[in-house]
Amino acid sequence: MWAVLPVKGFSESKQRLADVLTPEQRSRLSQAMFQDVLGALAGSQSVKQILVITSDDDVAVTADNFDAVVVKEPDDVRGLNAAVCYALEQVAGFGAERALILHGDVPLVTPTDLDYLASSHLEGSVTLSPDTSHSGTNGMVCDIPAELTFSYGENSFDKHRDSASKNGLLCTTVAVPGISLDVDNLSDLIRLNERIKARPQLATAQYLRRTEIQSLIDALS
């Protein structure tokens, strides 16, 4: 199974944290989280190869450090959903029959989480792993070609389930703690700060610890 990660530039990420983090802090945090996700994918027994689609050179360099296939996002591919579709076309060209779509802001994900999600997938179905509120889609396993409409964004979890139903696909929901926490806002960052202390080896944990961010989060929480 191939893994697909659509990633925008680190400097463009996490705008909803602008009230508490500087642009440099948001960029470095995004890079650290991306490294942790790549590390989990690299350690998964279910993932044969990783494809990262991006228009950002720094993202490409980080992905290359994990031997990922990097695909430059074409100028006419606009938005996350279009990027996912284009990436799936690329992995299909490599002969992939199934793909795991993941995002770069779930740093608590482990290889075991990914193997569990992959093993839960049934051929001819769609497997969704939601965020903590069951509104977003943090992980997805689908066959190639994908027979549903990608609707990442607000309420994507329900939209993906509806699309699967309309296309006659069995849709399985698999809640995975390491995938459910994506970091978009201050509340997410506070929860991440608490949970990641048990995993000090992660790049995200190390970044939070060596900067003033962890002290800031502790004070805010």
From TrEMBL:
GO MF, any single term: phospholactate guanylyltransferase activity
InterPro entries, A to Z: CofC, Nucleotide-diphossugar_trans
Record keyword Transferase present: yes
Family per record: Belongs to the CofC family.
UniProt cross-references to PANTHER family, sorted A to Z: 2-PHOSPHO-L-LACTATE GUANYLYLTRANSFERASE (PTHR40392:SF1)
GO biological process: F420-0 metabolic process
Catalytic activity: (2R)-3-phosphoglycerate + GTP + H(+) = 3-[(R)-glyceryl]-diphospho-5'-guanosine + diphosphate
Function according to Swiss-Prot or TrEMBL: Guanylyltransferase that catalyzes the activation of (2R)-3-phosphoglycerate (3PG) as 3-[(R)-glyceryl]-diphospho-5'-guanosine, via the condensation of 3PG with GTP. It is involved in the biosynthesis of a derivative of the hydride carrier cofactor coenzyme F420, 3PG-F420.
Pfam families, sorted: CofC
Keyword terms of this UniProt record: GTP-binding, Nucleotide-binding, Nucleotidyltransferase, Transferase
Organism: BD1-7 clade bacterium
Associated pathway: Cofactor biosynthesis; coenzyme F420 biosynthesis
E.C. number(s) listed in UniProt: 2.7.7.106
Name listed for the protein in its UniProt record: 3-phospho-D-glycerate guanylyltransferase
Gene from which this protein is expressed: cofC_2
Classification of source organism: Bacteria, Pseudomonadati, Pseudomonadota, Gammaproteobacteria, Cellvibrionales
